Amino acid sequence: MMEKTFHIPVLLEETMKYLITRNDGIYVDGTIGAGGHSEEILKRTNAKVIGFDIDPKIVKIAQERLKNYGDRVLILNRNYASVKESLKELGIEKISGFLLDLGVSSYQLDQGGGFSYRFDEKLDMRMDRSSDLTASDILNESSEKEIADIIFKFGEEPKAKIIAREIIRYRQRKRIETTGELVKIIDKVVGKKYRLKVLARVFQSLRIAVNKELDNLKMGLESAIDVLEKGGRIVVISYHSLEDRIVKNFFKSNEKKCICPPDVGECKCGKVQVVKILTKKPITPKEDEISLNPRARSAKLRACEKILELE
Ligand SMILES: C[S@@+](CC[C@H](N)C(=O)[O-])C[C@H]1O[C@@H](n2cnc3c(N)ncnc32)[C@H](O)[C@@H]1O
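# S-adenosylmethionine complex -> structure
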């Protein structure tokens, strides 16, 4: 029997501290999930919250949880990468804050979506069940090189090529349908000592590929900065280095004033500073939060403030 887990919002106090700049206005929760962070924004302010989630089941859960806040909340079953267009459709020009709490919610882990190597389930991994590609499709239909690239690029797993070869060998006999089969394949080529690390990396890589997580993150940040008001904040909680690197680089490139080569003298690039980074180093959870919520262990929070209104 699978253990049911209640989703506890990660770095809640820290998120509120960095995100909330005013009592009114509109905050966008790009990954509303079970609505933990959003509920806290609603409790602490009189602002409106627009929530996004690609998983329709999760949207229902959040709607039910936040129903007492009436028209202060609107939850859309959409990808946060479309935040700019979605707000335009709603006639909203500017927002005071944009929050992303990346990854899978505990509810999704309990839904048998094949996200975890700890449970033997169908190898699906789609957060948005209306999309076509599952993790099983990737493993059964991609070439050996494509599979190795996914595992190496999105899992940073040094044994990617060996694992990809074993996947191909296995699927010549039978389609790979379950997480259990993938675990067996990995167990054949990886020793006990590194087993859990490798499993985590391979599963992470497939989840990122299936849900196009890194592309969404890049698009979402680009989109959000345009609709953020001056003084508004972006807060992102990430759970692995690939996500964190994207957030860090995005903030840094928007903080830079000039990108001319050093020998140019007078600036010719015309680049201006758009944000101020508020977290020089990422904020991480304290030990007491981690002991209450193991999911928080790898969390890193970064925040920036928009200091310039672009035309
Ligand atoms: C970690 S949970 C968020 C938990 C939430 N902060 C809370 O306190 O309950 C992440 C959620 O983001 C959603 N998600 C992931 N990628 C998304 C995307 N590109 N657009 C919209 N939602 C996304 C997932 O379906 C999941 O429900």
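# post-check
Residues 7, 9, 30-31, 33-37, 52-55, 58, 79-81, 101, 103, 105, 127, 216 surround S-adenosylmethionine (CB under 6 Å).
The chain has two domains: 12-107+213-306, 115-211.
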